[in-house]
Amino acid sequence: MSESASAVEPTPGKNVRRTSFNEGTGRLAALLLSPTLIVLLLVIGYPIISALRESLYTSGGIGDDGFVIEGTRFVGLDNFAAIFSGETGDRFWNAFYNTTFFTVTCVVLETLLGVLMAMVMHKAFKGRAIVRASILIPWAIPTVVSALLWKWMFQADGIANAVLGTQILWSTEGWQSVLSVIVADTWKTAPFIGLLVLAGLQTIPDEVYEAAKVDGASPWKTFTRITLPLVKPALLVAVLFRILDTLRIFDLPYVLVGPNKESVETLSILAFLEANQTRYGPAAAYATLLFVYIVVVAYVFVRLLGADVIGDARASKPKKNGKSKDNQLPPGTAAATASGSLAAGGGGL
Amino acid sequence: MRFERSHTRKAVALAVVSSLVLFTAACGGGDDGSKGNTGSAGGALEGRGPIKFATGKDTSGNLTSQVAAWNSQHPDEKVEITELPESADQQRNQLISNAQIKSTEFSVLNLDVVWTAEFAANRWVTQLPEDQFPDLGKLLPSTVATGKYRDKLYAVPVTSDGGLLYYRKDLLDKAGLKPPTTWPEMIAACAKVKALPEGKAINCYAGQFEKYEGLTVNFSEAVNSAGGVVVGDDGKPNVDTPEALAGLTALAEGFKTGFIPKAAITYTEEPGRRAFQDGNLLFHRNWPYVYALANKTDGSSKIAGKFGVAPLPGLNGPGVSTLGGHNYAISEFTPNKATAADFIKFMSSEERQKANVEKTSQAPTWASLYDDAALNKQFPYLAPLKASIGSAKSRPQVVKYGDVTTAIQDAAYNTLKPNGTDPKTALKDLQTKLSSLITQ
Amino acid sequence: MAQIAAEAPWYRRWLPLVGVGLIVLYCLVPFYWMVVSAFRRPSDQFDNSIIPKRWSIENFTDVFQPGTGFGRALLNSLIVAGTVTILTLIVGMVAAYTLARLDFKFKNLVLAIIITTSMFPGISLVIPLKKLFSDIEWINTYQAMIVPSLSFALPLAVWNLTAFFRQMPRELEQAAMVDGCTPAQAFRKVIIPLAAPGVFTTAIITFIAAWNEFLIAVSMVNRKDISTANVLIASFTGTSGRDQPFGSQMAAGVVVTIPLVIAVLIFQRRIVAGLTAGGVK
Fold first, then answer.
1. Residue B238, Ramachandran bin (φ over 0: left; ψ between -120 and 50: alpha; else beta)
2. Which residues contact C114 (CB under 8 A, 6 or more apart)?
3. Which of A238, A249, B194, B266 has the greatest number of C-beta atoms within 10 Å?
4. Which residue ranges make up each domain of chain C?
5. Domain C65-280, what architecture?
6. B156: domain range?
7. A167 has a chain C CB within 8 A of its CB
8. How does pLDDT run across C65-114, given as a tens digit for each residue?
9. Chain pair A-B, CB pairs under 8 angstroms
10. ipTM
11. Where is this chain compositionally biased, Low complexity type (chain A) (predicted)?
């Protein structure tokens, strides 16, 4: 690189390469994207399609000989209809509410905390490595272990009650079980948002901040006018993926509080419990409904907030920040930013 | 890096082909199981060769030595242990998902007693000809019943389990009391102990009341010990009875009056054991495994040597335990069924069971072992355990056991939790639910 | 910002520190409990004293007993998570760069498809996948754990890297190509170093996610010699099967977590520094 960068190539070569860069981009894109798409279609697309198909079938029933009748029967949308009727319907809507509640609460808390963590990790001070390590730890502990850890801390005679001086029965139905799930989930995944936002922060060159300082901007203004807009893409991706994950929340309520507990039953738990009773049709129907719900939420999220993430992915030149009411930096800043960091030696890693 | 067009084409072609293959596979699935024959019932168990034994964790290392003993005698039919995860739910899921894909991986399956019906009815395990297992008559009859589905044998019991009443001998002695045999006696005894200076802070009784399988066990014991049934001998649910009501009410009253501490609603086996070991419980219903742990003198138990074991008390007479334990069955999909059957016979033999109880203290199913003097000396709880298991009742042996136990847990938990529902209504609803689940 | 703080009144200097302290405390307190539980003697496992009365490494020696195969399981975890990370980075960076730079039809559709695959509840994927893997005889192989983890990690990797690459001005590659780089070289030598924080973060997140994966690992593999550490931890039991070996599970948790955190810190210094340095000159 070092020689080729400094070496001045003859102009013809440049022309050839530039054309090859733009020629047949569709085909080139297909080629470059194919590994990703093949893996995803194979390992996830296929199970999704087979689950969608499964949701239209039913199996089971015990014959007169005492054996389970083999094979599956096509039942159309019966599995879906069954979910919405009677007691099952109440259970579904309760799980729907819980899922939504967990997602909104946890993601909001995690975003606030995560951004805070990122700011802390980004600051240059002595002992930063220790701070970074400690923030990383909750995210690095295997879920298997951390769920167990929280379960023991929240036992009737556990450390949580001992420290708080209370006698709360955390795993019983009610607000306390919901709270325990939220605390454990926030603890575990706020670092995830923190890490992704930190990466965003690291691509902002110091010059931008110095310029802001020269202009006499207050720290809060610097944060809202410079930091936030510049980390917005990274932050939005992080939040989007947290939303997708939390909508599918399963382990924590299941391990910490337990199955069949109304207060913390989520849609994923319902799907799991059905599959656990080998009723794969209804289980697939629950999974499909959850899937549809997540698709809708993600779509709305991207439409409302994510214009930067996906909206201008196609034509990045023509439309820019059209409807953004934030007093954002002018369109050129990103370029200035990156070249600035190039000059500055890669920013403050 | 130069991109060749042919690569693009190949990649695209590969993607198309592989997705085509997948979709055909997706549409072809599901029906290929219909060829399953009902004729395997009681047929000859054929095929010999190395097999795999799927079981929960070998906790004491004893299983390994048992299997080593077999392997040294059968060099051409070696058995390999596959350890499944610790939780029973995950064990069942692993076994079922292997059966779903008709995997030949596992040959001998270690099944919890409540899984027999489900595995048998789905044809995941092979029916066993009873004449090939001549020792069945020497096992405790209640345990053999757990291996049957619709009167046919599908699994051989190797370990059993029954509930025991652990009590604080030191405190009962001080109050001049004998271990209680009925629920009212137990309440009275606790009142007396609480009157002692040493007994002031103690809680009276706890079983397992968290919403999980243990609650089904404790609920069934309460109902059976009051003379009721959950599922009758005719296979029909019958919980909307005065007897069942008396049983459930006793538990509910226990929570209301403080006879059972509030925290017990979160107890599984382990928190309950801890409360007992810490000296916070006068009476505790648990399994035999507690005996050795509560007697440890390394400081983990504050009551080592200070407690005794008795059969469970009933409402007005002797109590009825719920039967636990594990049975060995043969996977329908293994080619080496003859080896598997021999291995099961080997493991359920008197010699092996004796070795097992000595090493692991798991309750044997072989009846005569309970009268073995040396064993009784080593495990003083064997006599009450024999009484417990001998009269124990199985949980419902139904295909949809998962739904049945969930329904029972719902009813019991909703009654016992703070501000719970009225037991009468709960049982009535439970009867309706069970009737729709169990249609035989 | 540090300078700003220095000139500010005392509360502005101390408030951030208090904030840092609170965050660190919040993250570390549960972890502290895990470590302390691991170092208790099994006999006073359920003690609630903040500092153990007697320290012991018995839980750790239990974890590494010869029969448990825990060392082997750690190696397996490393193989799986390492391969997943490398593959995810290679495949994901190529895809992300394509999405960030090339103009082609259906770009939004591709991005949408990629993210859609991480919207299906994971627990519902297991049985179809197990059928598929059993048909192609992948049960009990490393790839049966690697490929699903790869596909779980790819959507986040592609989206995140796309966001990062798009922030890099096009003029950079154009300048590099003026200087004679091929597009691939421009990508490798200019863009990746500049996006290093993003790439590195993606690597950490992928690695940890793969390291922590449990559901697929437990379902697709039933041979102990290629099981991952997580699966092994879940199969820990006490002496009777009913008593839970909380202490050794926590000890195992410490053993799988600490090296991870240390590795991340070291990598962060070395690799990122290396990448960035390469990009500058």
1. beta
2. A36, A37, A40, C95, C154, C155, C158, C159
3. A238
4. 1-56, 65-280
5. Orthogonal Bundle (1.10)
6. 43-161+323-390
7. no
8. 877 788 999 999 999 999 999 999 999 999 999 998 888 888 888 988 99
9. 110
10. 0.86
11. 332-342
